[in-house]
Amino acid sequence: MRKLFFLACFLTATIYFGQNKENTISKPNKEYAKDSPEWVFIKAQNCFVHGDIDSLVTFLHPIQLEYFKNAMLASLSDSINAKQLKSIYSDYKNLNEIKYIPADRFMSMFFKYLFNKMPLIKKVNAATRFKIVGHINSDSAAVYIIYKVIQQYLTLKDSTVLFGLCKKYNNIWKASLPASLNNAFLSFIKNSDHNSGLETPLTEQDIIASGSFPKGSPGWVGNEGLKYTKASDYDNFTLLMHPTAIKKQAAYLKKLLNEEVFDEEIAPNNSEYKSYNEFINLSDMKLFSFFFKYSPFKIDVLTNALKNSKFAILGYIIENDTTAYAITKIHAYVNGAQYIMTDLIKFLKYNGDWKMLLRKEPETEFN
């Protein structure tokens, strides 16, 4: 039950869905045309928030439904959780029968069970609102939706920016689960290609277009950041980060890296800093850069994966004069396994220049 409870919390927290390099300004939800990617996204959102799971699955892409089913089976069908799985799908006699449940019914039964067992989830969902920021076209049959999730329940108040993928199926737009949720499924599925099935490998055209954004734009800054990360050039990477993000991370590191940690782990492997006092008094930017160069980030398999990876900024949206977002895709191989992952980068203006933030930075700390 503990594993199922963890999955329930995670799923309901992230279920809110997220080479034309256009910048798309957001517009009110009501203006989106019927059957457009945004319209499908909104319908899927409303179905989930109001607990209409049977309707929700009709707006999701069939490949995504199969992916959800495979992930849940891989996560819950071990000997410890098999009993719980049978409780969810009590109409079926054994695990073998459960495996043959149609993917849309599998998801529908799963969430209905969770809502019945955990009524608080439904209450929190009912108090959740969302706003589409805009979209980025990947190609004629795929669109990334960037959106804000606004949650307010009792004393809980939170605003998060997420993204998801809408893709055509038989010429009809269908929604995906959030990219953050798909990425999390990677750890659940054994012997998979580490891809939801909806994401396609990067093309040379993607990579060329990623390098052609106007200098200083969010797309250009994001692409430079990816280049520096691939080259392990964290000094230059740090120059692209928002100073507030750097300051916060440096303060955290100063608490984490005490004198004992310095003497035992840092000093023996770094001749650059001779004393703890010298190290701890580094500028925020130098300490931030060191954070990325420090040994946990220099694992050979990850370093090699970065060097051999392909990456691109698929496009960006300027929400207003001070805030922008970009979608990035990375195609890499780790120990022979293929990873195709997308992510969202947020940018804020600082002294007239676009600067990147770390993921999950609270917006209030940058106002």
What does this structure look like?
There is one protein chain. This protein has 367 residues and is of the alpha+beta class. The protein folds into two domains: 2-200, Nuclear Transport Factor 2, Chain: A, CATH 3.10.450; 205-366, Nuclear Transport Factor 2, Chain: A (Roll), CATH 3.10.450. Helix content is 44%, strand content 23%. It has 17 helices and eight strands. It has helices at residues 2-14, 37-49, 53-59, 62-76, 82-88, 95-99, 103-117, 119-126, 179-185, 204-210, 218-230, 234-239, 243-256, 259-266, 276-280, 284-293, 300-307, and strands spanning 128-139, 142-153, 156-169, 172-178, 310-318, 323-334, 337-350, 353-356. The strands form two sheets. The protein has a four-stranded antiparallel β-sheet. Strands 5-6-7-8 form a four-stranded antiparallel β-sheet, with helices on both faces. Helix 3 (53-59) packs antiparallel against helix 7 and helix 13 (243-256) crosses helix 16. The protein starts with a helix and ends in an 11-residue tail after the last strand. The relative contact order is 0.13.
